[in-house]
Amino acid sequence: MKRYAFLYLLGFVSMVIAIALDLMAPQITKHIIDDVIVGGQTWLLMELLVGLLIIALGRAVFQYVKEFSYDYIGVSIGFHMRKDLFRHIQGMSMDFFDRHNTGELMTRVKDDVDKVWVTLGFLGILSVEAVTHTVLVIFFMLRLNPLLTLVPLLILPAIAFCAFRLERELGDVYDQISDETAELNTVAQECIAGVRTVKAFARERYEIEKFSRHNKRFYDLNMNQARTLSNYQPMITFLGKFMLIAIIIVGGLMVIGGRMSLGDLGAFSEYANNIIWPMEIVGWLSNDIASAFASWKKIKKVAAQVPTISSAPTDGDAPRAFHGDIVFDHVGFSLDGHEILNDVNLHVEPGKTLGIMGMTGTGKTTLVNLLQRFYDVTEGRILLDGTDIRELPVGQLRACVSVVMQDVFLFSDTVTENVKIGHREEILPDTVEWAARNAGADRFINRLSDRYETVIGERGVGLSGGQKQRISIARAIAKQTPVLIFDDATSALDMETEQLIQKRLNEVGQTTKIIIGHRISAVRSADEIIVLDKHTIAERGTHDELMAKKGLYYQTWCVQYGESGEDKDACQVENGKKKGNGGASACQ
């Protein structure tokens, strides 16, 4: 609001002038009645009518300035609030998004900001105008007849009381409506985003019933709001009309008694009529202002939260060049009181490949989340090129890491823009095509309608799971960072394509690779493989070393390639003797 102090002042001055002009009209009406109609001074009529015309034109001009100023202020404040709030949300740590669902945040950024900027713009000036208008009308009434002014002054407190009760009750209702709006948005967003899953499991009826429950709750709250309004709004309107009738009756008696002129009563009646509209919109203003304050509290609650991951300050020098030397030094991590990792020690030298395996929930993805500082370790430290990652600017840290996530997300944009997302300004079209070839995606991309300029849709609609993964892999390769992470990134690919991509990735520069996989084929060629179990590293070594130990890794091999260890041993022997036959290819 401070940014627009001048416009606030301009709008307020224009509003006061417009109100003053508006309240001059009853004075001209008074002269028309007393001097022209009663006094017979007809030559004054044209001058008085011209005066009314000038008042109307002046009021139109200043009302326009007022309306434009405050509409401009409101829209601009909404623009900046939404931008600042969205930037704040983007800067939050991952645990923030664990606590807040998508629908809730969408409601804060869109609906709640809309309600606030309307209040700070149009609705705010209308409230100020109503108060200013009422005060000035009472002032002119007192000048005309102080005794008759007692009539509206006696009725106004009753109207104010109704408005106060209305605002208080609506405030409680709007808190609940705001919460339910977020819930309704969340349900709708999840159902629409997951429509394929809904249809695959014939879950439409359940989702409709779920949405209907929240929709009914939203309906009930809005009906409660309507009942609250209907309890007070008619009373406010009735009191306004009753005041006008009382003024005419009391004023008429005064005119008959000779204590005021007919023109004074006409002017006073116009003022009384002018004071009615602020009273009639009090309930509506209270309604929207209460809604805006409820929304403002929700926005403040989000804006008051601070990231748990604090970035080290940049030193102003050129970004540091990293080589990809990674050390996990006695790393432990707990979240919400649950231990996820305990005393993890590993070292990945630059250009080497680390494979990570383990049962679901053993902390494989957590390792790479910690490396990117989506969360901070609760014990130990993680070093990148000998520096604790907590001492590095978060932007620099994440800029040197490319990740292919297990949950592939593709934006509603062209293939090129999805691949360039890591460094949009620096990545050239040739690099995009080079990355697509190394990811095994160039063949199907060239068959698309517009090749690399094809819009692939929200979440990669129209592409198979394997095609989405290959574009995601191309996106990571194109970024050309010293650290490359694959989080179960080839699960949707066939074995032949997976091996082809792995072969090409081994030829991509001196990049440190971390590969998380559930399939032996994804990690078997890694320089070191670790197996996580019970929150820590249970086994480590190369593929051959782990097979020789006949532990967890060996058991996984048996499950994936044979029914028992003896079968697998036989298969391995057969593979060594008869390369190329059906049994060997099954082992491979």
Give a verbal description of the structure.
By secondary structure, the chain is an alpha/beta fold. It folds into two domains: 2-303, ABC transporter type 1, transmembrane domain (ABC transporter transmembrane region fold, Up-down Bundle); 351-363 and 400-577, 3-Layer(aba) Sandwich (Rossmann fold). It contains 21 helices and ten strands. It has helices spanning 5-38, 44-90, 94-99, 102-144, 146-193, 195-200, 204-256, 262-280, 282-303, 364-371, 394-399, 415-419, 429-438, 442-445, 465-479, 495-505, 520-523, 543-549, 552-561, 565-577, 582-587, and strands spanning 326-335, 338-348, 353-358, 379-384, 387-388, 401-404, 483-487, 512-516, 528-533, 536-541. The strands form two sheets. Strands 6-7-8-3-9-10 form a six-stranded mixed β-sheet, with helices on both faces. A four-stranded antiparallel β-sheet has the order 2-1-4-5, with helices on one face. Helix 16 links the parallel strand 7 (483-487) and strand 8. Helix 4 (102-144) runs antiparallel to helix 8.
Main β-sheet, spatial strand arrangement: 6-7-8-3-9-10
| Name of the CATH homologous superfamily of the largest domain | ABC transporter type 1, transmembrane domain
Tell the overall outline: elongated
Question: How many individual domains?
Answer: 2
Largest β sheet strand count, sense and barrel closure:
6 strands, mixed
